[in-house]
Design goal:
Layout: E1 7-17, E2 22-25, E3 32-34, E4 47-49, E5 53-65
Antiparallel strand pairs: 1-5, 2-3, 2-4, 4-5
Length: about 70
């Protein structure tokens, strides 16, 4: 099990994600998805997408983690 506290790291994601989107946990354990800004409580953000992604199947993109 790897955990990133700060930096640019690979992250499993699912769904439509645009570069710059904030990411939160998805319905799939261990996989992130784009945050709905109207429906997310404070403190749930995982990181910020540095790449775009669009698939219903999990894939990997680079994410910025830490001070955003």
């Amino acid at each position: 099990l790897n955990i990133a506290l700060v930096g640019r790291v690979p992250c499993k994601v699912v769904g439509k994600i645009n570069k710059g989107d904030r990411l939160v946990s998805s319905y799939i354990p261990g996989v992130a998805t784009a945050m709905d800004p109207l429906n997310a409580p404070p403190g749930v953000m995982i990181g910020k997408a540095l790449q775009s992604y669009d698939s219903d199947e999990p894939g990997i993109i680079e994410v910025a983690v830490g001070r955003l």
